[in-house]
Amino acid sequence: MNEETLVRRLNAVGVTALSDALDRLAISGQAIGILPVARGMKFAGPAFTVQMLPVGLTHGIVGDYIDDVPEGAVVAIDNGGKLDQTVWGDILTRVAHKKGVAGTVIDGVCRDSDCCVSLKYPVFSRSVTMRTAKDRSTAHAYGVPIQLVEVRIEPGDWLVGDSDGVVAIPAGRVEEVVAIAEEVEAAERAILAAVDAGMRLDEARRAGGYHALQSRAV
Questions:
Q1: Angle CA 105–150–120, to nearest 5
Q2: Is 163 in contact with 37 (CB distance < 8 Å)?
Q3: SS3 43
Q4: What b-and-e string marks burial along 89-114, b requiring 16 or more CB atoms within 10 Å of the CB?
Q5: Angstrom distance (rounded) from CA 180 to CA 113
Q6: Do 80 and 108 form a contact (C-beta atoms < 8 A)?
Q7: Mean pLDDT of all residues belonging to the chain
Q8: 204 and 160 in one domain?
Q9: Which runs of E-coded beta strand occur in the chain?
C-alpha cells in the first residue's frame, strides 16, 4: 500500500478504532495523556524521533533537527514527560508547517499554541506552558528509539492523532491494524443503523458482534 493511501485510511478511521485494533492484537500503542493543543487537529505519518536530554549530560542542538525532517513525517519528541520546560514553539511550528511535516507529538510540553492553531498545524503534548527548554534540555539524538509515555517508538513507526489522543503502530503491522480498525468502524455503523431502524441496542450489539470487536486474537 502506498503512503498516501495509508495516510488517508488512517485519518479516516481515527484513533478510537485504531486503539481497539491495537487491543485486539495485544499491541501497546496508546500514548495516554498526550492530547492536541486544539480539538479538531489530526495527523497520520511515520515517526521522525527526537531524544532530549538535560543540558550538561550531552552536547546537542535545540531544534535544528527540523531541517532534516521529511515531508509527511511526524516529529516525535521524548522529553521524559517534563512539564516545566517547552521543547516546541512558534519557530519550529512555522518551519514544520512550511516543510509539509504532518504534525508533532511531544512527551512533554509546547508553547506558542496560538501559532499552531492559526496555521492549523497539529501539535500534541501533555500540556502547554511558557518556560523555554533552552539551557535546560537539548536534542541529544534523532532517528533513534524513544518513549512516548509508556510506548516505545522506533523511527518509522506510524503515529496517528486526533481529538481523542495519539496511537503508535509498529511499521510492520500498520496495514493489519488499519484493516481491523475499519472492521470495527463498519460494525459500529451497522449497529447504529439497526438502532435507527428500531432495534434495541442490546440486540443490535449482539447481532453486530460488538463485545468481541476488541477481543484479542488467538
A1: 15
A2: no
A3: strand
A4: bbebbbebbeeebbbbbbbbbbbbbe
A5: 34
A6: yes
A7: 93
A8: no
A9: 35-36, 43-54, 74-78, 103-107, 109-110, 123-125, 127-128, 137-142, 146-148, 151-153, 158-162, 165-169
The pTM is what? Answer: 0.92
Dist. CA 139–CA 113, nearest whole Å? 21
**pLDDT > 50? residue 94:** yes
Yes or no: say if 96 and 66 are a contact pair by the CB < 8 Å rule. Answer: yes
Residue 162 pLDDT exceeds 90: yes
Exposure class string for 32-59: b at 16+ Cβ within 10 A, else e:
eebbbbeeebbbbbbbbbbbbbeeeeee
187 and 133: one domain? no
User: Is 22 inside a domain boundary?
Assistant: no
**Cβ distance 35 to 158 under 8 Å?**
no
What CATH number is attached to the domain comprising 165? 3.50.30.40
Cell of 56: 550538561
Report whether pLDDT(207) > 60.
yes
Do 164 and 83 share a domain, yes or no? yes
Going by C-beta distance under 8 Å and a sequence separation of 6 or more, which residues neighbour residue 26? 216, 217
Give phi and psi for 83, each to the nearest 5: -105, 0
Q: What separation in angstroms does the CA of 78 have from each of 7, 122, 141, 163, 185?
A: 23, 17, 10, 21, 31
- Residue recorded with cell 455503523: 189
The three cell numbers locating residue 8: 488517508
Cβ–Cβ < 8 Å for 87, 108: yes
